[in-house]
Specification:
The complex is a heterodimer. By secondary structure, chain A is an alpha/beta fold. Chain A contains 16 helices and nine strands. Chain A starts with about 20 loop residues before the first helix and ends with a helix. The model of chain B has no long low-confidence stretch (mean pLDDT about 95). The chains are: A alpha/beta, B alpha/beta.
Chain lengths: ~400, ~600
């Protein structure tokens, strides 16, 4: 393997056994502490983007008092440029369900839900088929755990965990105040583990390989591998499982078209990295984290248009509840248009930059706090494109 | 004992009960953090973000209203970071807001406006977004106007309608930049389940929800030399009007209010208390007659329990929500409408006036009364019985317009006839008051004796906010006419706020409760917390108003409705007897079944 080749792995999608639900059958025989310790040891962090240590999330939920607890799989994959959960759910749903069932055992939940993005409705028949097999298996194992599918209705904000619970409960998809966190008050205000689709698969992987093997991949802060959704100006768009902690220049060498000017890491709510910073940027929690979305832009692209497009998206997809996100997005969008048209001077971008900083620290939810990321990173790095 | 947590706010150590929010902890220290979506009566929303503070070692700024204090927290409420963030938030709100303050009814009493002035927002940091929004204004309702261009989406109204009233006429629609407060299918307020209670108006921090005001129409009537303008004032106005004119809550201003009304130019200043007493006589006899039908005639069709009908918000609520119980409502009109019907008949006759030249105005703590006055059935005098309904707030405006020095006005007395009042009528303004007044009279009618409570204070039926109050009263030693009630335990229930009204009715419907008499007031605390009362409102202010009401009752020389001299006189001169022919014509009404959607 040469230096420039990224380490591709095939753990997420790979078939490892002919025997269905083997890992689940083996794992539920193990003591809960051991499972949590393995997860802790593995260093697994949530794959949805925020990167909260999975072991801690499970531990807190297991410890939380409550007569009823839930496992929720967040499959509301709505971040622009992300399409890896769809692939996981269509190719290895068994691993997702196994991970959820293991979680259920650890935290003491009898019920799991997959909250599926409304646009992924086409996956429902296959998932239902697999769920039937899953339920037969858990029954055979003498283990009381069932999984139900819930469909979203197309709102981006419902990918935010507390908005997702609201939506599941039949309310408007609006994030809740935190604390309390889902570990103590999630779905139906009961202790709930909510993880990304990929995280559950990672759990199964760790149970199968052991934490030591898992840790061989990645860096200290970003262990393991990750499924990336690669799109944009690349000759080879698609879904790739790569080791975490790579430098962006390596990534661009592999996926770029030779003219890459910027990579938007983490989708519309992520960060834009310009060419001059490729070599110093690590893809991982110590650098630029991502839920999987990697969008490449070559020099034919106007970063103004890219940003305008993202802001249009957020202006519409903010839940509208809190001031900084609802009004801030409108101001940023209208503001860059005004500067571009010359109705406002270039200095107005500085004013908007300050606003974006306020948005990042005052919005009610994690998504609201990240909607201005693309604005600040694109404007900082491509200011001249905003003005001229 | 509750667990304590220790934290530091702006350098001050404070120890608070676990669960206390940062905002409350700061207030304990006398540090005022600005808020907008926060309201003492409502659950925490945490959506305006004005109350953000800086917490050491935390990247983002938590909303102090929504974040519980935790051990060892170090909070800064006024750091550079906080100040800039807050200013940005207020500027953002202003950029979406139709800030044409001089054209706004709430000019001078607007929470957004005062924040804006605190933060010196004169330079408007951001672009005006108002032209990008297609804001609509709903002014089809006789009681409440909803102007979306003034709305800051704090959702206080939505929470009020849902939590306090369980009506949910208002809700959130759409998302993102289009997010707005709306109604079922975006229908105008008058076409949805809205009860016009005005609790949302009381809590709206801006001018997005206001009462439809009739100030100019009333001035026009006053200045019209050909009209005789009569004004009536509801019991709860006299204990709250002072607040609208800068006096502290809980001040009784009855005499000054009468003096002010006279100086404004009303031709006759009369008292709704008079018809409150009349209501007691009619409603009390109605209850007795229903009980007689049930117990003596064994009429299976008699509708019991009987429920009070004074609160027009409650009336519209039951019309929408429990239409099958409309026969259980007392057929008595509310005191306002009894008054209106009598002004253009009895009063006109007494004063030798042509009713067509009388303009009848009422001052009410209520917005639903505006709707009530416009009901088609409220024309039994041959004219619209009550022409204009003003809220306590609107009267406050008129007094200011006239340049009266309210505090220094002498105490004056109501005119006669229809100006006499009793303590029983005054307590109509508080939850449980109608029940207490009715019992003071009914007990005496049935037994010939005064009700055996010290000082006539029937405290078991005095309601409280957030409570359904049940009480029973054993009737013994009845007079011959009412022997059928001998030994009967009269079961009463008192509730305020429509959320509790709904519970009471649901219990009745489910057969879980067995009452004879139900008193419901639509607003928290009763009329004293009405939707037309001065803004702001909170539990503390309402508690002071309540004290004032009972103080006023204690101070009245007559405290029983049937002893009101004007009431005695009207039966002698005009009505004949309770539930008589004239009463039915003028003082009783019927109700309309309405759909929920």
């Amino acid at each position: 393997m040469s230096d420039t080749t990224l380490k591709r792995v095939d753990l997420i999608f790979g078939e490892y056994s002919n025997e269905k639900y083997k890992v689940l059958a083996e794992t539920i025989k193990r003591p809960n502490e051991e499972i949590i310790n393995d997860l802790l040891e593995s260093g697994l962090r949530g794959r949805g983007g925020a990167g909260f240590p999975t072991a801690m999330k499970w531990k807190y939920t297991a410890q939380a008092p409550g007569d009823e607890k839930f496992v929720v799989c967040n499959a509301d994959e709505g971040e622009p440029g992300t399409f890896k959960d769809r692939e996981i759910l269509s190719r290895v749903p068994r691993k997702v369900f196994s991970g959820m069932a293991i979680c259920g055992k650890v935290i003491g939940a009898k019920k799991g839900y997959v909250y599926l993005r409304g646009e992924y409705r086409f996956l429902v028949p296959e998932l239902m088929q697999e769920l039937e097999i899953f339920h037969q298996h858990v029954k055979k194992l003498g283990y009381d755990f069932t999984i139900e599918l819930r469909l979203g209705s197309g709102a981006y904000i419902c990918g935010e965990e507390s908005a997702l619970f609201e939506s599941m409960e039949g309310g408007r998809g609006e994030p809740r105040n935190k604390p309390p966190y889902p570990t103590t008050a999630g779905f139906k205000k009961k202790p709930t583990v909510i993880n990304n689709v990929e995280t559950f698969v990672n759990v199964v992987m760790i149970m199968r390989l052991g934490p030591i093997q898992f840790k061989l991949l990645g860096t200290k802060d970003s262990r393991g591998s990750k499924v990336f959704s690669v799109s944009g100006d690349t000759p080879i768009p698609g879904i790739y499982e790569l080791e975490l902690g790579m430098f962006l220049d390596r990534f661009v060498e592999e996926f770029g078209d030779g003219d890459t000017k910027a990579v938007q890491v983490g989708g519309a709510s992520g960060f834009c990295v310009p060419r001059k910073k490729f070599s110093e940027t690590i893809i991982g929690f110590e650098g630029v984290p991502t839920g999987g979305s990697m969008m490449l832009f070559n020099s034919s692209r106007s970063m103004y248009n890219v940003l305008h497009n993202y802001l249009d998206f957020f202006e519409e997809e903010s839940c509208g509840q809190c001031t900084p996100c609802r009004v801030g997005c409108q101001q940023l969008r209208k503001g860059i248009v005004a500067v571009k048209k010359g109705e406002k001077s270039a200095h107005y971008l500085d004013q908007l930059m300050k606003l974006s900083e306020s948005m990042k620290i005052t919005a009610k939810c994690g998504l609201g706090q990240s909607v201005a990321n693309s604005f600040s990173s694109i404007v900082n790095n491509f200011k001249e494109e905003m003005i001229y | 004992m509750t667990k304590k947590v220790n934290l530091t706010i702006d350098g001050n150590q404070v120890s608070v009960d676990e669960g206390t929010t940062i905002l409350q902890a700061a207030r304990q220290l006398g540090i005022n953090i600005p808020t907008l979506c926060f309201h003492e009566d409502l659950c925490v929303a945490g959506n305006c973000r004005v109350c953000v503070v800086e917490q050491e070692k935390v990247r983002s700024l938590p909303a102090s209203c929504a974040t519980p204090a935790a051990e060892g927290m170090v909070i800064h409420t006024n750091s550079m970071k906080v100040r800039l963030a807050r200013k940005h938030i207020v500027e953002l709100l202003l950029s979406e807001h139709n800030a044409d303050c001089t054209k706004c009814y709430k000019n001078g009493n607007c929470e957004l406006q005062s924040l804006a002035s605190q933060m010196l927002t004169g330079d408007h940091l951001f672009l005006d977004l108002v032209p990008d929004h297609q804001y609509s204004i709903d002014k089809f309702n006789p009681a409440i106007i909803k102007d979306d261009s003034r709305c800051i989406r704090c959702q206080r109204c939505v929470r009020t309608c849902e939590e306090l009233q369980n009506v949910s006429a208002l809700g959130v629609a759409y998302k993102g930049n289009l997010m707005k407060i709306s109604t079922f299918f975006e229908n105008p307020l008058f076409e949805v389940v809205c009860t016009n209670c005005g609790q949302c108006v009381n809590r709206c921090p801006t001018g997005a929800l206001i009462e439809r005001n009739y100030v100019d129409q009333v001035w026009d009537a006053i200045y019209n030399p050909n009209t005789h303008v009569v004004v009536q004032t509801a019991p709860a106005v006299r204990i709250a009007l002072g607040e609208a004119l800068g006096l502290p809550p809980g001040k009784i201003v009855t005499g000054k209010m009468v003096a002010a009304l006279r100086r404004l130019g009303f031709d006759s200043v009369l008292d709704t208390d008079f018809t409150a007493d009349l209501t007691i006589i009619e409603e009390g006899h109605e209850l007795l007659s229903r009980l007689r039908s049930a117990l003596v005639d064994k009429d299976p069709k008699v509708a019991l329990p009987m429920a009070t009908s004074c609160s027009p918000g409650w009336i519209k609520f039951i019309e929408h929500t429990f239409p099958e119980y409309l026969p259980n409502l007392s057929t008595c009109k509310s005191p306002q409408q009894m008054f209106g019907a009598l002004v253009k008949t009895y009063y006109a006759h007494k004063r030798d006036l042509d009713p067509k030249n009388i303009v009848s105005v009422s001052i009410m703590p209520c917005t639903a009364k505006k709707f009530e006055a416009n009901r088609p059935e409220m024309r039994s005098s041959g004219y619209q019985d009550v022409d204009f309904v003003l809220t306590t707030r609107e009267l406050g405006i008129m007094i200011k317009q006239a340049g009266l020095n309210f505090e220094n006005l002498p105490d004056e007395k109501f005119d006669s006839v229809m100006g006499a009042s009793t303590g029983a009528a005054v307590i109509f303004g508080s939850t449980g008051g109608v029940m207490e007044a009715a019992l003071r009279t009914v007990y005496e009618v049935v037994t010939g004796r005064e009700i055996p409570f010290e000082g006539l204070n029937i405290t078991p039926v005095r309601g409280s906010e957030g409570q359904i109050r049940e009480a029973s009263l054993k009737i013994t030693n009845t007079v011959p006419e009412f022997h059928f009630l001998e030994g009967v335990e009269l079961k009463c229930v008192v509730a305020n706020g429509l959320a509790y009204a709904k519970q009471v009715m649901q219990n009745v419907k489910d057969g879980k409760a067995n009452y004879h008499f139900i008193e419901i007031m639509a607003c928290p605390g009763g009329c004293l917390g009405g939707g037309g009362q001065p803004i702001p409102t909170n539990p503390e202010i309402r508690a002071k108003r309540k004290e004032a009401i009972y103080e006023e009752d204690m101070g009245m020389p007559i405290r029983k409705s049937h002893e009101n001299p004007d009431v005695k006189q009207i039966y002698k001169d005009f009505l004949g007897k309770p539930l008589g022919h004239k009463s039915h014509e003028l003082l009783h009404t019927h109700y309309t079944s309405r759909k929920r959607y």
